[in-house]
## 1
Amino acid sequence: SLIPGGNNYFSFLCAFRVSPGNINFQLDYSGADDYHEMQTGIGYSRNLGELLQIGVRFNYYRLRIAGYGAASAFPVEIAAVFQLFPKLRTSLYVYNLMSAGPKGEWLSKIPTVVRFGIGYSASESVGLSLEIIKESGKSVSFQPIIFYQAAGKLFFRGGFATTTGLVFFSGGYLLGQLRLDLSTSYMGTLGWTTGL
């Protein structure tokens, strides 16, 4: 979002195929006048046969708050996807497993986040999934999602998160290896947020 005088958020991700696997780069930034938070990372993923995919990403995290200074940390992400049956798969994702966090009494710790997901392909066009999310210090959240892909190019998805009341929708178009995605979400007092 680009809100004058408000909080700005940017995210960039790119991935490249290598043999054997994929390398990805990600950059996330959010900030306002006196607060800046940034994370960048490099990851690697690959298939281990037809039934298992694994991935890992090493991140550099930096936080700066005016009047307090800046601090950094190196959180790690790991993930695995298991193909249980032809139409059913599960996934497990862990962020900051080793509880890395910036040092300083004024800094809050970077949370450890565990996500478990299960997805079912009802047809070639329709998919259903449920994600269970546990963040350290917070209640468990359930996030059901429905996905629809039309004619192999257009796709739509929507869902909600139980703990925050977040409702989200997105749609997009596939252009060969490129995917254009437009999303919007709504959450209580924060209102609407859009993204491209």
## 2
Amino acid sequence: FPVTIEAGELTVAITPDGKQAYVVSGSKIFVLDIETMNVTNLDNPINLPAAGLDIAFTPNGKEAYIASRENKYVYKLEVASKEISTITLPNATETYSLVIPIDGRHVYVSSASSPPNNVFVIDTKNNSNITPVSVGDIPYYITASFDNKAVYTANYGEEAYSKIVNKSPFNVPTTTNADLTSPYCVAVTRDIVTGK
């Protein structure tokens, strides 16, 4: 059944324990109890410095990262304290999508309008350690393989997707022309094994 929160652009992420859904609506984050389907902080949402778009949790569920879209920042949320900190991405103009592979060591953030088109890799132990990786034209949504070995971007500006090996140093990724028309999203099935 539908749950009414508020009008706005919504993105949802489930906590690793499966008990809550965090819903990003503009510059607010609402927390939904999945068992009861009640919004637990409807009158007191978590406030972001600017509008958020995508959200992802670290595997231990202690932190969440939010792509801001409207600027060059990624916001880090300490789940227990609800404290927000800001991570600045160098030479980015907006952030769009992000993913955290299952090892939890890095956050991969797509920046579709940064020249050149970049995915930024944030070290979760030291959020000031940021590595830009140039991928295909206009990378939008991004996802990680279930075996923890690779990250993929859908490159809207060309008929292609890019693959980044999830291992430092982050070398030049592989971009594959797949005869796609303005690919926007990307997903990986569990039976795909990468990095061989």
## 3
Amino acid sequence: DQTFMPYIRSAYQRFNLVCCLNLSKTIDSAIYPNTYQLLDALLKDDTDIAKYLASLGYDLIIVGRRKENLLNLKKELKVKVKVMPLDLSEFDNVEELYNEVKNDDIDILVNNAGFGLFGEFSKTDIETEMKMINVNIKQVHYLTKMFLRDFIKKDNGYILNVASSAGFMAGPKLSTYYATKNYILKLTEAIYEELR
């Protein structure tokens, strides 16, 4: 019986973990003009999931655009940490990430990378929105599918797709961001039902 369990295993068992993080705390006007970080209300910052899982003894593979931020996080964690500085708005990097770690016996995938863009839909920058869709939807979709296939084969594995409360509603002046989070929520719910 192949099931998907929506919780994290006991701290007594050690697993490898791929944690896709967006470690930018400030506006990066060179890459994402007019954007700001949208963090889930339950998290103080986007490293909390990695810190929590490390506190349980999970080894981590952390992914983000800024190598320096990843290395700083690695120093804080008391477990084995592999750093992979990749911009997940570029799909080739998403494929590279999966190909690099697929043989590392991954047991948990956390899709936590994402960003938003504020403004009226008719006026926001289309290039930035396409990057947002790549990060917030395409990479989540691809990594979820690829790791889910692996987890089904070995009859073990967990996926956490972070969607935020934006996944439950429409968001004027954040329309594309809210739409991406709706996608993540509905995709994850559908997969959960398929695996019950």
## 4
Amino acid sequence: ALDGEYQLSRNKIIKHPDAEYLNRKLTMILRRYEEKLLEIDTDVYTCNDLVRFLRGIRKMGEGNTLNSALDIYLRTVHKEQTIKAYKLAVKRFCNFMGGDVLLSTITTHDIQAYHNRMVDQKLSPTSINIYMTNLKVIIDHAKKLRMVTYHIDPFEVYKKPKSNIRDLDITVKELRRIRNMEPSTYPLRVTRDIFM
């Protein structure tokens, strides 16, 4: 620890028995911060968000990360396709954030910025909805297990996009074909009769 401001000069520690060691350590920390800041879009974050993000990097060995919450949640899932969907949702979010993040550092701003990035990438509303829903499930499960508590939930201000509604009507001609068909098996006859 420093005794006072007189031991600082031009961003260096002076007049301290361990000045050389402390200056090397500070340089390494600052380098790591700079690398992480280069990986994220700093224009979409407030100063407080950036400070929390950088503190989260420094304490990455402590606390619960999004990937640790995913691992715990996946113990409850048994379908391979579902597991892949959750892994992909978390992987995309972590890539957006510049790596695995502490659950406690995820903000409403992060969620909205992530959504906006997917819109900019021209993903369909349905795909965006799937990624966001899967991410929310992981975070909600972590909250349930008390892995994290939020003063403001990260999804508090997020609004789900409307999914594309597809027209699934059949034409009169297609209806007549179904009605007039001669099914070759009993299950097909039952299916036709139920449909009609």
